[in-house]
Design goal:
single chain; Immunoglobulin-like; rod-shaped
Amino acid sequence: VVYVFTDHGFFFLPGLAFCYSVINGPTNATVLAGSEARFNCTVSEGWLILIWLSNGNPVLTVSSSQGAFETLDRFTSRNYTSSNVFTSELIIHNTQLSDSGKIECSVQQANSSFAFLSVQVNGSLSIKNSTLTVKENETIEIVCEALGWAPAPDITWMTNDSFIDKSRYVTYQSQGSNGLHDALSILTLTLTDTEILTCLADIEALPNPQNATVTCIFVNST
């Protein structure tokens, strides 16, 4: 007997031995917080109940006879049928950092398949001054601050169109009680000409690194 829990209570489906399985399970996904995450699960003909779980907790149930039971607003589904196979697509709306973890597709009295969701947070990035006057033979420190990221961002620096050697800057990282990370990167340079310095912060979910710039205006002492 297969027992299924929905927002309408428990119901059961009688069954004997089934010859169906998960053909293609979900694949790992990395997304920015606030965006959608999508996972597909394809099962062979004859299935009765398919359950999606997030970190071990059932979030959506699909019945072959009654369709999807969507009990949580952020978790919805779309269904596709083709060539004797059925595909359930789980859609997680407005993803949150707490959604990170194991996403599992489970078919009653058959096998299950899982993937991992990584929800990342794009924080802020800033350099205090947009312009700075630098004198000849003067050593300067430029501070770049990244606040509220997850995971901690990878910080790099560029001058004009070239990356600056990592020996020229040091980056400190810390994590708050909210699980978000802060980073402070300090670049030390002695300039011989006017330059545009760029601080870049990157995480996997970002299509392009976030950046902040400062224009250092070189003033010859003569």
